[in-house]
Amino acid sequence: MNQCIKRSLAGLMVLVMCFSFLPMIKLKVGAETATNNTVAYKYAGNYVYNWGEREELATFLSPMAVSFYEENGVSYDELSEYIGGTSQDDASSSDLYEALQDLMKNTHEYETSYQETRPLYKYTDCQNSGNVISSFYSGKEIGPEWDSGATWNREHTWPNSKGLNGNDENDIMMLRPTSVSENSSRGNKAYGKSSSYYNPNKASGGSHDVRGDVARIFLYIYVRWENTSMAWGTAGVMESSEVLLEWMEADPVDTWELGRNDSVQAITGTRNVFVDYPELAFLLFGEEIPSDMDTPSGMAKVSAPSNIECSHVYDYYCDNVCNKCGEVRDTNHIFVGWEIILEATVDAPGIERGSCIYCHAETEREIPKLDSSDENEPNNPPQGDEPNEEGNGEQKFPTSKLYNMIIQICMELYEMILSYLGFSL
């Protein structure tokens, strides 16, 4: 009989528990993307053409970007919780740096060789899935066929002479096709604003702004390949983190840059996180994210100090401290399994103890004194769903032997389900 009861109750509790999990599930989908995120991808086998257009502001995360973060089990909220540095001096030793490096490195499934990048540019550096290459600095149409360097070649946006040594110098994320004259004009000068630095907008005369592009490429090599020894100043690649962040804000991500991130992902498996989430660059160097900065995800404006409204995430249903903002809320325990630990008499009240079905916190409450007419009656606690004196909806249940057995079964089943799904009480 007991086995039959247990099996029936277990089946019933599975259905009940499915509904009870709903308040604890942390949803990640939909909060980080804009609504206008439909992209008509053009494929050539496994390759994806760059669907974007230069100077067209990216106001959404592409479908490939959304899938990348979902499949790798990370979100902007989670990444932004890591602590960055306080400046360019200690950014590379921060927890955020390590987390971003792990993400881009662990998803980098295929590393391109120097030679094979040539035929790949017709996919990565075209516009609107077209058939010609857009020269990185000027936007001039080049290729797509390789002409042995007569009219175009490959620009190391991070110069070989400044710390590259191995597959980092062949990474198609950093190697960009340019006309021969553009490549020669830049040489190996560091990017920057001062006279001793190279202005990346020089080649286009200002018709194309690529300051943000070079800043985000710099960050990719700086983090993914851990090239930190020759990063800053005239001997490095970028004038300073101040200039880098200024350029990222002044030249936000366009759809051409976002489309290229999709195209490179189709080749290598990884993405430049700083294209999808430029906000993370500011956190990496300990700076406040500009509240009016345009980004693909829109998280800069959502997470601005004046607009913060925490969605609150708790470890379990009755946890009272938000994991994101630390705000303390009123506890929401549901106490069950009441047991009498002190019988009530006509002279004194009794005491009964219950435990929370979620976190096992215990509480005690008073059992009213018996009326003189009940002196010889069994001491039964009140029945039903009456609130306690504080009005917090604590449940009052019978305390028979059968009921205690039911509660024990429920608690064990509940813990097994939580353990299986990866939750903790």
What's the N-to-C terminus distance?
31 Å
- Strand element count: 9
Strand order in the sheet with the most strands = 7-8-9
Q: What's the overall geometry? A: elongated
Average pLDDT reading: 83
Topology order in helix (H) and strand (E) letters: HEEHHHHEEEEHHHHHHHEEEH
Structural class: alpha+beta
Oligomer: single chain
Number of domains: 2
Characterise the protein shown here.
It contains 13 helices and 9 strands. With 425 residues, it is an alpha+beta fold. It has a 3-stranded antiparallel β-sheet with strand order 7-8-9. Strands 1-2 form a two-stranded antiparallel sheet. A hairpin with a 7-residue loop joins β7 and β8. Mean pLDDT is 83; it is low at 1-11, 18-36 and 381-400.
List the helices and strands and how they pair.
Blueprint: H1 2-20, E1 43-44, E2 47-48, H2 63-71, H3 76-80, H4 95-106, H5 117-124, E3 133-134, E4 141-142, E5 152-156, E6 175-179, H6 180-186, H7 211-224, H8 241-250, H9 255-268, H10 273-276, H11 279-284, H12 299-302, E7 335-342, E8 350-356, E9 362-367, H13 401-421
Antiparallel strand pairs: 1-2, 3-4, 5-6, 7-8, 8-9
Helix pairs in contact: 1-13, 7-8
